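To illustrate the input format used throughout this study, we show a single complete record. The first block contains the structure-token representation of the backbone; no residue identities are included at this stage. The design step must infer an amino acid for every position from geometry alone.
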């Protein structure tokens, strides 16, 4: 009951794909690489997820309901660090792709807290900020947390730049972060108790139990590219993973620099979001989990 996407098949080859589909190299039981709960390839649809570094590739498995079969680029040093830990880990979540080193890593949940991530060097990934914003302002604060919307506990991401964001070529000290996002389809959030509007083509990539990226549509209908990508994948809490596995979607809220602030608890974060909302300083979107 394995799903192997065309992009995974292209990476591992037809022969290895045939062995997987025949059950020769399938793991049987596994820990889902997305929600980290047990799965069984003989009992439920299972996605093959190929993590690819510069020299190392590893095939992992996930509930098809959590994440589709896909190729996930990962920094080579992260793969190598995981390879070093495989000999002391139990219950493998992945198997080596043909000719590659095995990957296994033990992930531990962290407490809810804001964390900042810087993009990679220019030219290696899109700026981690609103499209067309100046590279010198390309630092976003990303906070994972849970928010109550329509009496349900929902997974959310809160985005706030560490400084003003200006358009390329703009003069003066203005902040164009919200207008740039609105041009991309984000909608002003006027009521925090209402579900944000869906944003077609955008998605949130959660893999190996960690948050990797927020993806935006590629040019001309091409595959999605990273609007924000973690310098190192962000560990999310068990509660956040459980909530997102139920809904398969994430509420993404964004405000300009200084509108929300660094809040140490989810209740304080919600209060800050409500104040930004009342001032007209909040935009939001609902994004599906994983790739587009």
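Output of the design step:
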């Amino acid at each position: 009951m394995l799903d192997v996407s065309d992009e995974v098949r292209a990476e591992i080859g037809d022969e290895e794909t045939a062995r997987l589909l025949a059950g020769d190299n399938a793991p049987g039981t596994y820990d889902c690489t997305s929600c980290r709960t047990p799965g069984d390839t003989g009992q439920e649809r299972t996605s093959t997820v190929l993590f690819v570094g510069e020299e190392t590739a590893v095939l992992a498995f996930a509930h098809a309901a959590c994440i589709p079969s896909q190729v996930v680029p990962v920094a080579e040093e992260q793969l190598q660090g995981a390879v070093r830990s495989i000999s002391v880990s139990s219950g493998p979540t992945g198997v080596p792709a043909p000719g590659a080193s095995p990957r296994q890593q033990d992930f531990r949940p962290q407490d809810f807290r804001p964390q900042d991530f810087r993009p990679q060097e220019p030219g290696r990934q899109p700026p981690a900020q609103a499209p067309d914003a100046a590279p010198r302002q390309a630092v976003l604060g990303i906070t994972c947390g849970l928010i109550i919307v329509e009496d349900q506990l929902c997974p959310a991401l809160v985005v706030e730049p560490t400084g003003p964001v200006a358009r390329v070529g703009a003069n003066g000290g203005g902040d164009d972060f919200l207008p740039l996002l609105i041009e991309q389809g984000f909608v002003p959030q006027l009521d925090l108790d209402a579900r944000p509007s869906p944003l077609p083509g955008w998605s949130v990539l959660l893999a190996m139990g960690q948050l990797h990226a927020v993806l935006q549509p590629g040019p001309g209908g091409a595959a999605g590219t990273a609007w924000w990508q973690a310098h190192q994948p962000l560990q999310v809490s068990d509660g956040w993973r459980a909530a997102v596995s139920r809904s398969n979607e994430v509420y993404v809220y964004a405000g300009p620099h200084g509108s929300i602030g660094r809040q140490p608890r989810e209740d304080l974060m919600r209060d800050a979001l409500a104040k930004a909302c009342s001032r007209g300083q909040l935009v939001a979107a609902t994004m599906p989990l994983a790739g587009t």
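Structural context for interpreting the output: The chain has two domains: 2-96, 115-288. Residues 85-138 have pLDDT under 50 and may be disordered.
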